[in-house]
Amino acid sequence: MKKGAVLLAVALASCGGDDGGSDQSKPRLVVSAASSMTEALDACSADFADATVRLSFAGSDELAAQIRQGVKPDVYAAANTKLPDALHDEGLLGKPVEFATNELVLAVPAGSEIASVDDLTAKGVTIAIGDESVPIGSYTRETLAKLPAAESKAILGNVRSNEPDVKGIVGKLTQGAVDAGFVYVTDVNAAGSDLKAIELPPDVEPQVTYAAGVVEGAKHPEQASTYLNELLDGPCAEALRDAGFGAAP
Amino acid sequence: MRWFPALLTLALVVTLAFLTLPIVAIFVDSSPADLVDSLGDQGARDALWLSLRTTGAALAIIVIVGTPAAYLLATRTFRGKALVVTLVELPLVLPPAVAGVALLAAVGPKGLAGGAIDAAGIQLTLATAGVVVALTFVASPFYVRQAMAAFGSVDRTLLDASRTLGASEARGFVGVMIPTAMPGLVAGGALALGRALGEFGATLMFAGSFQGITQTVPLEIYNRLGTDFDGALALSAVLVAVSVAILLAVKLVPRAEVLGGAAR
Question: Cβ A128–B109 below 8 Å, yes or no?
């Protein structure tokens, strides 16, 4: 029985080990990325030559909180520049690199009659936005704050859910739980024909820039900076363009 | 064979350390003053009040409907009973995310019964009622299972005696079965309460997250994780305290009453 327990422990330990992936020769690179990049990074990371990439997607702020609590992925890629800059200032992240831009849009179900932000003020319209602690939520609030006060207030009054990440907003939209939501254009592209994107007026549209950095104390800093470079130029950069992300500013 | 007791002790020490360290850390990681401060803001208070209301409502529904249902399952034998019991117990082992998807598919706006619910003018998704539905779904098996066990362990001669004395089954149920099974029912209620209070995934997926409407304490904890870790700790501490109280309530109920009975 003791032998069995030891074997089990060894098996578990080796699973948690560095090279537990199927390819024994490659190191395993852990990438924490904002959930808006799920489809793009899933598509390109299998082709990364230097390491087996393990992706962990969540709201940028949850991932930052994990790093602050001592979790050490190799790469942190956020949906804004604020969180990577803050982590850099705290000595937890190497110098952040801006690698992509995105566009905040109004998303509605394909057959919706909502045609512009102005239509969101009507009574009875239900809206899902990101919680203010996540980038999508702060971009949305930034945009609404630029609208006339009465309009902004009416729209916020119609908000029925503050979701912890963009996937939550998209889910509420595709399930028909809300009439409209503010998400990135890439999320609308990923949702296929279920949703349509309505562009925001240029004067209220926020600048959405994604930045990433190598986590201080990363197990594989070399492979991590290669991965970072490929976000700027390489298969992952291409996958990001295909998903609708813009090139770094 | 000295090594075996040593191995047992080691296993216990590891188990104990593994299970208690995270709980202890909640209280050690921030000062009591910070904890109290973090509970002062409106978001925390709204979440606590909402959790209290929705858990209370869910528990009321569970007890009112679950008690007679459990009585029936404990006192009758019929074809397919094992299947019925299994179906009732299923949410017990169902992952919360599955519960969320299942509720959307069943009673969400595009779900099987979504049209009928909408036509009846009932709003579940993104409404407090939706939170109650999610909590009731995940927590009721805890109560029903325990209540079945409690009813099953009641000495049937008591009920038979009341019947012989001319009491109807309804009177026997209310006057004999419920009082005798009470400790087990209380324990089941406490377990359901604990499960409902901690519900996260199904609530978020089905009901959404909005302060004062659908954002229960676990959702508020998750929201705070990124920006206000101390606040997340403070709310977690409250839930730990409540959980301890629930557990004590269950422990104070005589063991035989809680664990004995039909379900075993």
Answer: no
CATH topology for A26-101+209-247 is D-Maltodextrin-Binding Protein; domain 2 (3.40.190)
Q: Is ipTM strictly over 0.90?
A: no
- Start-to-end CA span in chain B (Å): 33
> To the nearest whole angstrom, how far is the Cα of B125 from the nearest Cα of chain A?
6
A162-202 residue pLDDT tens: 998 888 999 999 999 999 999 999 999 888 888 999 999 99
**Is residue A34 pLDDT above 60, yes or no?**
yes
Beta-bridge partners for B30? none
Domains in chain B: ranges and CATH: 34-259 (1.10.3720.10)
Q: Which CATH number fits the domain A104-199, given the four candidates 3.40.50.720, 3.40.1190.10, 2.30.110.10, 3.40.190.10?
A: 3.40.190.10
- Is residue B114 over pLDDT 80? yes
Q: What percent of chain B has pLDDT over 70?
A: 95
Residue A2 has pLDDT above 50, yes or no: no
What confidence tens digit (pLDDT) does each residue in B83-111 have?
999 999 999 888 888 999 999 999 988 88
Residues of chain A whose beta carbon is less than 8 angstroms from a beta carbon of chain B are: 1-2, 5, 59-62, 64-65, 68-69, 126, 128, 131, 133-134, 159-164, 168, 171-172, 175-178
In chain A, where the domains are located: 26-101+209-247, 104-199
Tokens representing residue A230 in the block: 């490929």
User: Which chain A residues touch B46 with a CB distance below 8 Å?
Assistant: none
Task: Indicate whether this model's pTM tops 0.90.
Answer: no
